[in-house]
Amino acid sequence: MTEADKWTVGRLLEWTTDYLKKHGADSPRLDAEVLLAEARGCQRIELYTAFGEEASEQVRTAFRELVRRRAEGTPVAYLVGRREFYSLSFFVNPDVLIPRPESEFLVITLLDLAKRHRNVRPRIVDVGTGSGILAICAAKHLPDAEIIALDISLPALQVARRNAETHRVSDRIDFRQGNLLEATAGSGPADFIVSNPPYVSETEFSALPRDVREHEPRLAVVAGPEGTEVIARLATQSARQLAPGGWLLLEISPMIESKVHDLLKQTNQFRDISTVKDLAKLPRVVRAQRDNDR
Fold first, then answer.
1. pLDDT tens-digit profile of 184-220?
2. What does the alpha-carbon distance between residue 33 and residue 43 come to, in Å, rounded to a whole number?
3. Which CATH superfamily includes the segment(s) 93-290?
4. What is the CATH architecture of 3-72?
5. Quick check: 150 and 173 in contact, CB under 8 A?
6. DSSP letter at 105?
7. Mean pLDDT of 86-115
8. Per-residue DSSP letters for 226-262?
9. 47 with 91: CB under 8 angstroms?
């Protein structure tokens, strides 16, 4: 076998990048690197010093299976079982949504408001916690906060608990199963209610990438025909559950920003309704403060 025939790390990456690109991957080179690092049991950055190394048959076999599944649409995060979010690594599986960078704006907004809040031990409720990213980030950065994490899905809560244990904050978060805020009955008013709720309409869902449509939990993505059905219910419940001056923070789709503002106004319970934009200057987080009059 000549040097040109050897399946080196560099050659594997080059071939796989082209292959995944032909199969519609949005980031074929990154996908190839993450999957090869997984097959080799190394950090992705280590690939750059190993381009000329020949991959073993064992590595090539493991890599081939990962690439096959990626080409069929399985998200990379599910293949490797983790995703980085807000500089932390989270375990993920098909029971939970894959964390997106856009959701970091929800964390940033929460931390900014919480650090200026009059209550030094704020009560934070994370609705639809999924993998637990919002609750866990809050626990890591707000050590005095009381945190409740809710999800209707028991398998999702199991993932969230595992992540909380990994990041050593499981004793700081009260995980509860329930639909929206139903499981907080009797817990007292909240200072912050945060949520990345389902906000995709039925029509929009059909246009989403295949890896989202076929692999991520539909219950956590689709809200209904309009895309605002879950937010409408959560807004009404939050108006009753928030303490005077408390905040409701919602991640949204840019396409429903005006509708969300209207829904919050219709409750007649919120003031200071505003939108936080992401790095692409798109509406990403809607924040609203509960009126002081109750």
1. 977 789 999 999 999 998 888 888 888 888 898 998 9
2. 10
3. Vaccinia Virus protein VP39 (3.40.50.150)
4. Orthogonal Bundle (1.10)
5. no
6. H
7. 95
8. SS-HHHHHHHHHHHHHEEEEEEEEEE--GGGHHHHHH
9. no
